[in-house]
Every structure is written in C-alpha cells, then in structure tokens.
Write a structure and sequence with these properties.
The protein is an alpha/beta fold and 400 residues long. It is 40% helix and 12% strand. The relative contact order is 0.16.
Length: 400
C-alpha cells in the first residue's frame, strides 16, 4: 500500500523557498550571497503595531479566539474596505486567516470539485496553480506577455471561460511582475465576467498599498458592484505593514462562502495567532504613516533597479506599477554560455548559473509560468541592490 497521498503528487515544492534554501546553504559555506528571491519587506514592523502585540500579551489575550477571527478585527476589516475601497461588508462576511495564503486556500478547498477550472493569468504567484491542484481543480493558464504589460486582455479571458470555469484569480499589483490593472483595464475584464454568471472572482490585493507614480489601485467589486455577490476580496497586513511573519490575512465575500471557509479552518489550523490578530487590529486602525514612507523607499529602489538592469547586455526590464519586484526578460541571452561554462538553455539555467557564479539569488521565470524571465525582489537596501545589479551586469558581460 502506498504511504504518501496521491494528492501530494499533483503539486511541487515552492521554487522560491527552494532557491532561498540553496542561497542559505551557500551562505553557510562562507559564500558572499545576495538573496533577492524572497517576497517580504526588509523593514521592521512599525513600532505602534509591535507595542500593541506586547500589550495584548500583558493583558492575557493568549487564548483561543473565534475560529476565523476576533470581532474587533473583523469590524476593522469592514471599516478598511469601506474607507479605502468603497465596499460595504458586515463582520459575518469577513474571514481572518493565518496569512493571505490560507484565505485563498480555504476558498479553493471549500468550493472546487474534480473538473472545476480556475483561470490564472501568467506570470502568476507560484502557489496559485498548486493550491488549485490540491483542491482537485484544474488550473487554466492564460499568458500575458511583457509587450502587453503582463496584463491579460478581455478577449483572452473570454476565450478561457468554459462551462467548467468556477473561479478567475486576479492579482494586482502582481507578484512576480509588479504589473497593475488600472480602472480601464479592470473594467474591461469585469465586463467579460458579467456575461458569465457562473464564474466567481478571487482577487489577491495584498500589494494594494505598494503602488507607484500615478497608478491608482482598484479591486474588481469596486469597479463592478454587480460582481460583489460572487467575489472574494483578499488582502492582509504582511506587505503593507512589514508583517510577513505575523501571518494574518483577511478576505470578505458572501456569507455562505465565509461560513464554508470557517468550517474548513475549524478542522485545520483553527484560529490565527491571537497576539497577531491584535497587532493586525493596530495596523488597520492606527497611524498609516508607515505606508507612505515605505512606498517612497520602494519606488526609489524600483527606479534604481530598472535602470541598472536595462544597462545589462541581453536584459530587458519593464517598469512595474507596484509591489517590490521586477520581471525582466532574458530572451537575448538564451543559448549563450556563461563565463563559468554554463549554457543558458532557459531561465532556470540562468538563475542557477547566476547564483553559483556571482552569489546573486533570483527566481527563474518558469516558476511563475512565463519564460524566459526572472524575478528580482528589490526589498533590500540601495547598497545591496546596487551590488547585486553590478554582479548581474558583469555576469551578462562575461557571456559568449
């Protein structure tokens, strides 16, 4: 009898975690490694949030809470959606999870049956397809090119929808590309979705506050209120408030879906960490000054990285609208050979050779469903980024 579940065979380990692990191994060996593969801010959690967590501990708020979140945090989430997105929700329509990933996972596990399809634009966050597969569904990948700003067009969405389509996942600004769907782009997609009432919308808004220049964030139910009854709007505190390790995400949607997600959560993790919930409450209700400060730093870093990478032979790097990643093309480098003797057959070979020969860890594009590219996280100091870009330039210049 086979010991491991057949379900496990449908999925693969996270490539970003694998690359980060390899970078840590090289560091332990004494190598000078710059790790730009992880997706988390390099800033400390704001002080007032940390103080709220300490106060919660001192007040003895260390016991079980309601399975899907304390009432105070649910109300704060409702107020956030009303204040920033023009969306009206009641606490019964809100779920608090152990990170945004659990909100997405719970929604898919609670709704997908074998044969159900989920449309996922590429490049995509690495976990979307595997979560769909774990839930028994079928990922349907729709590729968006660099020339189209890494955004899918309405006719692509229309063509991907079938009678089996249950969800479409929209992530703006995007991990890995930083591409954002502005109001016009989003409206064009919602017009398609309004013609297909069986399709639900799962929107990943985790990078909402990390937007640059004149880009304005919008979420689907805000653009088309007619979709609100079949939309799960997901967000969290990890990126906006530098709280990745606190593991708090939240989502809002129809009561029936939220109840189903709570039922699933009650038999898996139960409630998110009580202390983290009170910290998240402080994040949503306290001073928002940190957001503007971090956004300015990330925009400066973006400009530094885009200019430096575009100066590297064979690399083409578009300007992202948000998040803290760039997703350059290395099409001109495919088939060449690195100074260390590695043939750059694909973007995985590029990333492997770059790490081994220069100590710079990035994630290859195939992990995100669109090649030949790589993801470079600029959640690091200006000095570290400048050093990394200089190493990448020397690596490219050394190719033959």
């Amino acid at each position: 009898m086979r010991f491991l579940s057949q379900t496990l065979a449908r999925v693969k380990p996270s490539p970003t975690i694998a690359i980060t692990g390899r970078a840590q191994e090289l560091t332990a060996e004494g190598r000078d490694v710059i790790t730009l593969s992880a997706g988390e801010p390099d800033f400390d959690t704001p002080e007032h949030i940390r103080e709220a967590a300490k106060a919660a501990i001192d007040a003895g708020r260390t016991r079980y809470t309601a399975v899907d979140g304390i009432p105070e945090l649910k109300r704060a989430v409702c107020e956030k959606f009303a204040r920033e997105n023009g969306l009206d929700y009641e606490p019964a329509q809100v779920s608090i999870g152990t990170g945004g990933k659990q909100i997405l996972y719970n929604a898919l596990m609670a709704t997908l049956n074998p044969g159900d399809e989920v449309i996922i634009p590429a490049p995509y966050w690495v976990s979307y397809p595997d979560m769909v597969l774990l839930a028994g569904g079928t990922p349907v990948i729709v590729a968006a090119s660099m020339q189209d700003g890494y955004r899918i067009a309405p006719d692509q969405l229309e063509a991907a929808i079938t009678p089996r389509t249950k969800w479409v996942i929209l992530n703006s600004p995007s991990n890995p590309s930083g591409a954002g769907y502005g109001a016009d782009h989003m409206r064009a997609l919602t017009e398609v979705l309004m013609r297909h009432p069986q399709v639900w919308v799962l929107t990943d808004d985790i990078y909402e506050h990390l937007v640059f220049d004149d880009f304005r964030f919008v979420t689907p139910a805000q653009i088309e209120p007619g979709l609100k009854g079949r939309t799960l709007t997901m967000n969290g505190v990890s990126k906006a408030y530098a709280m990745t390790g606190w593991r708090i995400g939240y989502g809002a949607g129809p009561v029936e879906l939220i109840r189903a997600m709570a039922k699933l959560q009650s038999q898996s993790t139960s409630n998110p960490c009580s202390i983290s919930q009170y910290a998240a409450l402080a994040a949503l209700t306290g001073s928002q000054d940190y957001i503007a400060t971090s956004r300015a730093a990330f925009q400066r870093r973006r400009d530094l990285v885009v200019a430096a990478l575009n100066a590297c032979p064979g690399i083409s790097c578009p300007v992202p609208q948000g998040a803290f990643y760039v997703y350059p093309s290395i099409r001109e480098l495919i088939g060449r050979t690195s100074a260390g003797g590695t043939v750059i057959a694909d973007d995985e070979a590029f990333a492997t050779a770059l790490l081994n020969e220069t100590g710079v860890a990035v994630v290859f594009g195939a992990a995100f469903g669109l090649s030949p590219h790589f993801r470079f996280s600029y959640a690091a100091s200006d000095e570290v980024l400048a050093d990394a870009c200089a190493r990448i330039r020397r690596f490219c210049e050394g190719m033959r």
